[in-house]
Amino acid sequence: MTSDAELGLRDRLAKLSGVKLLRGTQLSSELERLQRQLERLKDDTSDEEIWKRVELARHQERPYTLDYVERILDDFFELHGDRGRMDDHAIVAGLGKLEGRTVALLGHQKGRDLKERTKRNFGMAYPEGYRKAIRVMELAERHRFPLITLVDTPGAFPGIAAEQHGQGGAIARSQAVMVRLSVPTVSVVIGEGGSGGAIAIAVADRVLMQENAIYSVISPEGCAAILWRDAAQAKKAASAFRLDAAHCLDLGVIEGIVPEPVGGAQTDPDAAATLLQESVVSHLHELDGIAPDDLRRTRRAKFRSMGVFA
Amino acid sequence: MSATDKIDVSIEHKRATLDDGTAKKHPNTCPGCGSHYRDDELQEHLRVCPQCGHHFPVRGLERIKQLSDPLSFVEDEGALRSGDPLEFFDLKPYTERLAEAEVATGLGDAMITGTARIELLPCRLAVMDFSFMGGSMGSVVGEKFARACDHAAADGLPLVSVSSSGGARMQEGILALMQLPKTICALEDLHEAGGVMISVLAHPTTGGLLASFASLGDVLVAEPGALMSFAGPRVVAQTTREKLPEDFGLAESNLRFGHIDRIVPRGELRPVLAQLLRLFGSKP
After folding, report:
1. Most buried residue, A153, A192, A238, A263, by CB count within 10 Å?
2. Does B255 touch chain A (CB under 8 A)?
């Protein structure tokens, strides 16, 4: 499946991404050179290249939130339920120690076999999932725990009960709570960053994407069905969207790319977890020195600057 | 118009469709009751069917005229135009779609903002127009709403938003999704400054609009029959393969499930907004 050219590209991107590519920080000339290289790399990406990333982001063997939790957190204690109606298994949350300090972590959770997939609803949360996320965010704020969120969802669940229980409002309120937090927050898209269901838990100080993750306003299939009136045009839609990490970085939507083992995170989950942990820890260290009010102000300024208009 | 006229019209129409389902519909047929209407008559009735109360869509400027005191509205930020960050091309380039929409609607984008007075009470308005690319929210709608929040905070004025939108604008890709947190950040800034936002949900308010500022007003009121759902009925039906309840996603169902404060028929919207502004401390 993987051509030499693709391997080469991946290798280059992995090397590039090993260097922190932070927007808004001062770039040394070396970093600028690498950034230019990344631009060229981005220009190289064909429809096929981007579609391979879509497939890797959805790969059945790709590590999910709990796979990373058990590898990067010590003493993990899972928190269940929204304190109102139910426990949505499509979003997992808990407390654990990251390099000795307590952090709150929450993320979408997909399932690997049929039974687990059904239990996790394929990582598509109900409003109850977002309310569980909200209460864990508030807990983190109360106790000054940094918050880490891992994003991996095709989207919020489109169902009758989900609508009746207020899907739109729950997603809106979850974002509003993240906007208000004064503790450091880091979000990483570890697979599919699907639309509203993803942004609900990704309004963070630092938003990162794994090298083969995707982030988009609608699924490529959904977009193709609407704009091209043909779901088979998903490949075309995917590349038109530029939903890969390099493009999202270029658009200023994310602050960095987390490298994966060659061939994708599924080839070596332990190595993928180590790389993820290194990125998250280094970003948290950078955020540590910032006063709570400044954190909030900077976070808001960042999201408020997104968009292209004249 | 007398009451007998009204009844006759609707019955005639129902017969016509029974006789021949393929017959071409009269262009001015009410989807609620099948009666025919005259354009000027419908406009006089705030574009609400005088026979059955069906709420027709209202263009942005007409909505502003309906809600605000005569000649009180002053538009701002009207010069904002969208960029094309993805150089997006589906069946047509995005830039061409934008130009066509501007020619067809006379608007720069899907939201109109400015200051106005409602029953003498000064306020800021942010009103959406569904006829501009389905009222979709891209960079310009996001920026206009954000600036409306800032102006409202700076002037100490309440903000009234009227949403009517299919959701995020796909042609702007991930940046369209980022307008959700962007508008929420702006609204949080307004709320922290002590400002108030009244959110009016008109048909339809779906997807990214419902998942952002439209759901976060201090008070939420909706027009009768307005669709307000995160996922559209077709998507939900396809995904779940269940029969949808008759009022699925409609304002009436949302009121029952506790997502909005009240359903306000269009004719009462102006006095209700004035009442709310007074309750939040507005003075002429």
Report:
1. A153
2. no
- How confident is the model over A216-268, as pLDDT tens digits? 999 888 888 888 888 788 888 888 888 999 999 999 999 999 999 999 999 99
- What does the alpha-carbon distance between residue B37 and residue B6 come to, in Å, rounded to a whole number? 10
Q: What is the largest CA-CA distance in chain A?
A: 54
Q: What is the DSSP-derived secondary structure letter of residue A5?
A: H
Write out pLDDT tens, residues B160-176. Answer: 999 999 999 999 999 99
| Cβ-nearest to B182 among A162, A196, A304 | A304
What span, in angstroms and rounded, lies between the C-alpha atoms of A206 and A21?
12
pTM of this prediction? 0.89
Judge contact between B212 and B184, C-beta under 8 A: yes
All residues of chain A having their beta carbon less than 8 Å from the beta carbon of residue B211 are 156, 167-169, 171-172, 175, 196, 200
Half-sphere exposure of A290 (CA within 13 A, CB side): 20
Q: How confident is the model at residue A5 (pLDDT cuts 50, 70, 90)?
A: very low
CB < 8 Å to B77, chain A: none
**Domains of chain A (ranges plus CATH)?**
4-304 (3.90.226.10)
ipTM score of complex? 0.90
Structural domains in chain B, CATH included, are: 1-56 (no CATH), 58-279 (3.90.226.10)
How much is the pLDDT for B241? 85
Q: Is the pLDDT of residue A19 over 50?
A: no
Strand partners, B163: B201
Q: Specify the residue for token string 């928190």.
A: A79
Which residues sit opposite B111 in a β-bridge?
Answer: B128
Out of A156, A203, A309, the one facing B230 most closely (by C-beta) is A156
- Return left, alpha or beta for B20; rule: phi > 0 is left, psi -120 to 50 is alpha, else beta: beta
Segment B82-141, tens digit of pLDDT = 999 999 988 889 999 999 999 999 999 999 999 999 999 999 999 999 999 999 999 999
- For the record, the structure tokens of B18 come out as 């029974």
CA distances B117 to A239, A310, B127, B279, Å, are: 47, 29, 14, 16
Alpha carbon dihedral A27, A28, A29, A35, in 10-degree steps, equals -40
Residues making up chain B, counted from first to last? 284
**Min Cα–Cα distance to chain B from A128, Å:** 14
Please tell me the number of Cα atoms within 13 Å of A70 on its side-chain side.
6
SS3 content of chain A, % helix, strand, coil (to 5): 55, 15, 30
